[in-house]
Amino acid sequence: MTRALMMDDRDNVATALEGLEGGLPTTVIFPSQEIFREVTPEKGIPPGHKLAVKEIKKGDHVVKYGYIIGSATQDIGLGDHVHVHNVMSNRMHMPEVWYREED
Amino acid sequence: MNFLGYERPDGSIGIRNLILVLSVADCSEPVARMIAEGEKNVKAVTQHYGCIPGQMVANTLIGVGENPNVAAVLLIGMGCEGMPAHALGKMIKRSGKPVEWISIQELGGTYNAVTKGKQILRDLSEKVSGLKRREFDVTELIVGVKCGGSDTSSGLAGNPAVGVFVDMLVDAGGSAIMMEPIESVGAEEPLAARAANKMVREKIYKMIGDEEKRWSVPGAQMEFMCKGNVEGGLTTIEEKSLGAVHKSGSRTIRDVLENTDHRLEKVPKGGGVYLQDGTHMEPMAMSFMAAAGAHMVIFVTGCGGTFGHAIVPFIKVTGNPETYRRMSHDMDINAGTILTGEESMESVGRRIFNEVIEVASGKLTLGERLGYDNFSVFRQDPRLEVLLGITR
Q1: Residue A46 and residue B230: Cα distance in Å, rounded?
Q2: pLDDT one-digit tens code per residue, B379-391
Q3: Collapsing DSSP states into helix, strand and coil, what is residue B93?
């Protein structure tokens, strides 16, 4: 089974260690290899990208490494791709020249 | 643990035995290159901010000249600069190493300057090329850590593995220095929690806050995250920063080294982790760290980066197994084994430490073998500092 890495138990996202296929379950593990849970993303997730391992409401903090990495700009369901299309920095906004071509 | 290095007159220890041909402004760079051409262990460098570049650039060039990897320096000036070769030369000479300077105008132009420069190089080389490596304790080593071309593997594997190495180095009495002012935005809390005291804590917040101001001027489009970062899965500066600061390990942060138009502070004796103010832009950050005394730099890159530095060897680490597969002739350390589950973080940290000792003792990095010798210098624009109200 594919794996996704969750860095801290306060996190609500994990990083896909391989590309994840929509509809197939992935095991969310901690760096200690301990298993947090299984999550089935609805759509595919590229390797290195994040998926929600808990439900995240619009305006909620997105947490990775145990710290806030930004805020959700829309509701994010369990297993959803978490990236620039649904998260915004609380500190500095990226230029719009290139990143919008992403999603 | 020991390494084999070169002792300098001021008691510092070099890991390379280079002669620097330093043109004080880019107008005299072609002559510097002609002088250095075909010479072994000679590096021609310059800066590109004109001939009255300000104290920050002067501090960097002086610091680079003083770096223990540099055995001797020949400065090249046109002759009419606001920052003349002899002024920088006299400052570098305080370190006790052989330093000479020439003026192209005074010597009567290109031919004479090149002939004279080559002759001086021969004399300098005679003085320093016979130096032998001797054994020194790892407490003498100063290692810079930097990342660039990051993807999510950098925060999950590459940077934490380097952090494990930094803890090992510091526990053995060595020093580490990290320059990531913008890539600490959002990571103030974990950094400040490691500050040696209240003053250092405040300096950490100020350094990061000042850099955030410089990169968030309303109406100015500034790119502080590259396309590769986002394609690799990094979403915000906070995420990038929290992954980036892992490479400084977990030990006490002793100080934030000032790097302004007033002064460039060096890494003091005694070991430990230091942050240095400056820039996140890689080759320029390397020059700052070199000026602060770094012997080498560990460079973590998820996307893969191919460059180096003229006077500080670069050990490249990638946490991305796919990047290592594609670019193994550029990557000194494969930390991708962490994400594939083949190797522990500790084991990779130990491998990095072993590589550091070998490179310190003379083993060439892959970048050195490829001949990478980038050199560039950065300065804060003094006008921007005034307009943003950034003060010391």
Answers
A1: 12
A2: 999 999 999 999 8
A3: helix
Task: Give the model's pLDDT for residue B374.
Answer: 97
Contacts of B155 in chain A (CB under 8 A): 65
Contact B300, B249 (CB under 8 A): no
Q: Is the ipTM of this complex over 0.85?
A: yes
The rounded distance, in Å, linking the Cα atoms of B316 and B299 is 5
Which runs of consecutive H residues, i.e. helices, occur in chain B? 29-36, 55-66, 85-93, 104-107, 110-128, 152-153, 159-171, 188-192, 198-214, 227-231, 237-244, 282-291, 321-326, 345-360, 366-370, 382-387
| DSSP 8-state assignment for residue B38 | T
The minimum CA-CA distance between A82 and chain B, rounded to whole Å, is 8
Backbone angles phi, psi at B305, to 5 degrees: -130, 135
The enclosing H or E element of B293 equals none
Q: Which two tokens stand for residue B36?
A: 């250095």
Give the best residue of A15, A35, A93 to mutate against chain B (max B CB count within 10 A): A15
Residue of A nearest to B189 (CA): A67
Nearest to B238 among A17, A84, A91 (CB): A91
Residue of A nearest to B340 (CA): A17
Task: Give the closest-approach CA distance of A91 to chain B in angstroms.
Answer: 7
Q: Which of A86-95, B97-106, B220-229, B296-305 has the lowest mean pLDDT?
A: B220-229
CATH class of A2-99: mainly beta
The pLDDT of residue B228 is 83
pLDDT of residue B34: 98
- The owner of tokens 């290692």 is B143
Average model confidence (pLDDT) across chain B: 96
d(CA B200, CA B218): 30
CA distance B357 to B155: 24
Per-residue pLDDT reduced to its tens digit, B142-200: 999 999 999 989 999 999 999 999 999 999 999 999 999 999 999 999 999 999 999 99
Q: Is the pLDDT of residue A95 over 70?
A: no
Q: What pLDDT sits at residue A101?
A: 53
Task: Give the pTM.
Answer: 0.95
Q: Where are the domains of chain A?
A: 2-99
| CB-nearest partner of A69 from B222, B231, B239 | B239
Q: Which residues of B touch A69 (CB under 8 A)?
A: 186, 235-236, 238-239, 242
